[in-house]
């Protein structure tokens, strides 16, 4: 029997949790959660083996609604808790959900070191270009020139390119998707979850309430339209002349390596000692 | 009857004894960042843990990450610890509060150095007593222990793990550089000589389990992540199922239970040693390396006919009020020597409420308080 996406999702929601959820109508974060559930379902992972570790922000609230092991940590630190969980029990599928402020500002140091360490964690960075939960202040992903509560005259600083940051830090797998391109997003997410080592997936997701309204988007639909017309397959983007790129940005896979994660290396070391003990 | 096996004796640093104690207590997870004068704890763990059956060692990028990692390690079922010193301890505070709020057992060793800021990196101090109690934000109970010699470093580390597991709470062990870097002969206890406590895991079906349920002890069972009990953990104020709440009655229930689970067991938690306190006119209240100076000073005072006694604090928080009250009721005068500007004498004075005269001896120059300094004040009467 073919079950619908909705039916799948209902198998994974927490029925004893008091809905409604905290997200605004039109927020992309819910789409990410839907994709995550479908990816886990597609991979056939038992609920008990999945741990969602979330930071603080609107993105961080996703953890509360799904029936996995869920840990809502401190702002910026999700990866540190996840590192402990993964090292303590490498069998678990540890998935971190972070906002762009969470992962790149307060948690920037943990982000680069988790990538360098290549620990077996899937890092989902929900990039809405703004601090959503605290009311629309600039984040390290706020584009230069956009308006925010803390950049009322336009953002003066350059923003981070999350993908390049993760590539430079040594992640095993680096990809970018958007909540508009949901099927593609799911494919990327499945890859990110099933692979060894540190896998970073940036998801571009609109925050109409805090970012869109203050900038040029009249309603959520306009933001999704913007995603539709500007996200471009990486290969096509790279073939495009620099002066034609404008607002366009690449999505797809940027790095794909199969290096073992730190936890696997550590357990090899332990196996050497165990062999010494027994032999 | 079988002859008792001889104790293993080793010549160890305080910091080494901490590692021995941790391994005896079942510690199998260490995450940390090096800082003087605590670094040996981390270095020895790096060597020892990979050789044990299930030991995990990881060096993190900073102390914030260290604290996050050991909370994660503990949630996944390990007995976890980290060690640090003043500046690193400051960085740990936010996630230490998270551990209090989520009732995650773990042990933090802080080998204190002079402060504020980077202060006196290689000199002894007792500068973080109040930081250990109040360093993180919000109202929460916490257990803070200390040790005054190398043997005690081992024993108090075992106790710290036991209390952490028993009460599902972080426990801070405060050492000073002198205790951590003194080398003494210590006895490694036989397995039947100490108790090792492990957290209670639920035995009921997962559907019935409530991670923050009220129990007689105030402490709910805690299953490792991944063992079939799926629940939500958050630093937000939560209900008994772990879901965020701001309903006043649920907020109050949580806060009261968190405090009660420590308060109602204070006889078990508040540990101290007494030396000639019963008939003493002058009682010295001390902890850490200063307690050893005080012990010597008291023997000298007794030799010259002055009835002096020592109350050595092993638990700093919750503050051993009963033992102090007894000393305050019987003694004419109390002396609190410590290597800070008066962080523990504040507690003594609070309990005293004017009953006896309380004098302090304070040093913040990175030098030990000597027996003769204490003796001089004792002899003033
Ligand atoms: C240590 C600390 N500093 C600041 C905050 C306040 N704070 C909460 S959420 C947030 C930013 C949220 O933005 P982001 O991470 O981009 O996630 P979003 O809400 O946009 O999903 C901040 C600054 C906090 N909770 N903790
Ligand atoms: S504020 Fe923005 S990120 Fe937060 S729920 Fe609303 S739309 Fe989503």
Provide a descriptive summary of the structure in words.
The complex is a heterodimer of chains A (279) and B (381). With 279 residues, chain A is an alpha/beta fold. Chain A has a single domain, classed as 3-Layer(aba) Sandwich (Rossmann fold), CATH 3.40.50.970. Chain A is built from 12 helices and 8 strands. Chain A is globular, with a radius of gyration of 19 Å. Chain B has 2 domains: 8-188, Rossmann fold (3-Layer(aba) Sandwich); 272-379, Rossmann fold. In chain B, strand 15 (333-338), helix 12 and strand 16 (357-362) form a beta-alpha-beta unit. Chain B is built from 13 helices and 16 strands. Classes of the chains: A alpha/beta (279), B alpha/beta (381). The interface between A and B is large, with 42 and 45 residues. Bound molecules: thiamine diphosphate and iron/sulfur cluster. Iron/sulfur cluster (SF4) binds next to helix 8 of chain A. Chain A: It comes from Pseudodesulfovibrio senegalensis. Chain A: Residues 64-203 form the Thiamine pyrophosphate enzyme TPP-binding domain. Chain A: One of its GO terms (molecular function) is thiamine pyrophosphate binding.
List keywords for this structure.
heterodimer, A: 279 residues, alpha/beta, Rossmann fold, eight-stranded mixed beta sheet, 41% helix, B: Rossmann fold, 2 domains, five-stranded mixed beta sheet, 16 strands, binds thiamine diphosphate
Explain briefly what this protein structure is:
Chain A is an alpha/beta fold.
Please give the alpha-carbon distance between the first and last residues of chain B.
54 Å
Q: What's the oligomerization state?
A: heterodimer
Shape of chain A: globular
Q: Provide the succession of SSEs of chain A.
A: HHEEHEHHEHEHEHHEHHEH
Under the CATH scheme, which architecture of the largest domain in chain B would be assigned? 3-Layer(aba) Sandwich
How much helix, percentage-wise, in residues of chain B? 25-40%
Number of DSSP E strands of chain A: 8
Q: Identify the CATH class of the largest domain in chain B.
A: Alpha Beta
GO molecular function, one term (chain A): oxidoreductase activity, acting on the aldehyde or oxo group of donors, iron-sulfur protein as acceptor
Keywords (chain A): Oxidoreductase
Organism (chain A): Pseudodesulfovibrio senegalensis
Pfam families (chain A): TPP_enzyme_C
């Amino acid at each position: 029997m073919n079950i619908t996406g909705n039916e799948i999702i209902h198998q994974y929601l927490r029925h004893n949790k008091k809905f409604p959820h905290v997200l605004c109508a039109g927020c992309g974060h819910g789409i990410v959660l839907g994709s995550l559930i479908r990816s886990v379902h597609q991979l056939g992972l038992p609920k008990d083996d999945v741990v969602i570790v979330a930071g603080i922000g609107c993105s961080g609230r996703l953890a509360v609604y799904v029936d996995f092991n869920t840990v809502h940590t401190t702002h910026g630190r999700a990866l540190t808790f996840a590192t402990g969980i993964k090292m303590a029990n490498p069998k678990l599928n540890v998935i971190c959900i972070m906002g762009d402020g969470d992962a790149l500002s307060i948690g920037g140091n943990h982000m680069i070191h988790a990538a360098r360490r290549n620990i077996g964690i899937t890092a989902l960075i929900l990039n809405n270009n703004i601090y959503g939960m605290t009311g629309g202040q600039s984040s390290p992903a706020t584009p230069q020139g956009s308006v925010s509560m803390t950049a009322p005259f336009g953002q003066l600083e350059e923003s981070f390119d999350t993908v390049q940051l993760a590539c430079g830090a040594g992640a095993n797998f680096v990809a970018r998707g958007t909540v508009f391109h949901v099927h593609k997003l799911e494919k990327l997410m499945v890859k990110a979850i099933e692979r060894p080592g540190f896998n970073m997936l940036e998801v571009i997701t609109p925050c109409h309430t805090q970012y869109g309204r203050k900038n040029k988007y009249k309603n959520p639909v306009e933001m999704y339209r913007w995603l539709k017309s500007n996200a471009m397959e990486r290969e096509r983007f790279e073939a495009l002349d620099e002066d034609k790129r404008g607002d366009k940005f690449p999505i797809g896979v940027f790095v794909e390596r199969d290096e073992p994660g730190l936890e696997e290396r550590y357990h090899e070391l332990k196996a050497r000692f165990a062999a010494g003990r027994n032999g | 009857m079988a002859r008792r096996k001889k104790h293993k004796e080793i010549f160890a640093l305080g910091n080494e004894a901490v590692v021995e104690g941790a391994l005896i207590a079942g510690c199998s997870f260490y995450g940390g960042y090096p800082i003087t004068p605590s670094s040996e704890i981390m270095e020895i763990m790096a060597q020892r843990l990979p050789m044990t059956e299930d030991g995990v060692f990881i060096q993190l990028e900073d102390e914030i990450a260290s604290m996050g990692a050991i909370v994660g390690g503990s949630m996944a079922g390990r007995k976890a610890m980290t060690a640090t010193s003043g500046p690193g301890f400051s960085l740990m505070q936010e996630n230490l509060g998270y551990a209090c709020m989520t009732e995650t057992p773990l042990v933090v060793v802080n080998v204190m150095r002079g402060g504020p800021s980077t202060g006196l990196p290689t000199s002894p101090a007792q500068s973080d007593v109040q930081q250990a109690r109040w360093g993180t934000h919000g109202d929460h109970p916490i257990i803070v222990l200390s040790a005054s010699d190398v043997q005690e470093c081992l024993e108090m580390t075992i106790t710290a793990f036991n209390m952490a597991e028993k009460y599902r709470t972080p426990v801070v062990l405060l050492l000073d550089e002198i205790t951590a870097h003194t080398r003494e002969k210590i006895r490694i206890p036989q397995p039947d000589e100490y108790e090792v406590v492990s957290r209670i895991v639920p035995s009921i079906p997962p559907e019935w389990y409530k991670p923050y349920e009220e129990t007689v002890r105030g402490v709910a069972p805690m299953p490792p992540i991944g063992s079939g009990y799926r629940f939500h953990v958050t630093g937000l104020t939560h209900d008994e199922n772990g879901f965020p709440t701001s309903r006043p009655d649920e907020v109050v229930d949580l806060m009261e239970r968190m405090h009660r689970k420590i308060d109602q067991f204070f006889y078990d938690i508040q540990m101290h040693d007494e030396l000639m306190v019963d008939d003493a006119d002058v009682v010295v209240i001390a902890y850490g390396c200063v307690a050893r100076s005080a012990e010597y000073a008291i023997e000298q005072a007794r030799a010259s006919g002055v009835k002096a006694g020592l109350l050595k604090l092993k638990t700093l928080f919750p503050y051993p009020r009963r033992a102090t009250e007894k000393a305050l009721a019987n003694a004419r005068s109390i002396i609190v020597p410590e290597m800070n500007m008066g962080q523990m004498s504040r507690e003594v004075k609070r309990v005293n409420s004017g009953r006896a005269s309380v004098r302090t001896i304070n040093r913040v120059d990175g030098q030990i308080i000597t027996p003769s300094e204490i003796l001089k004040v004792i002899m003033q009467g």
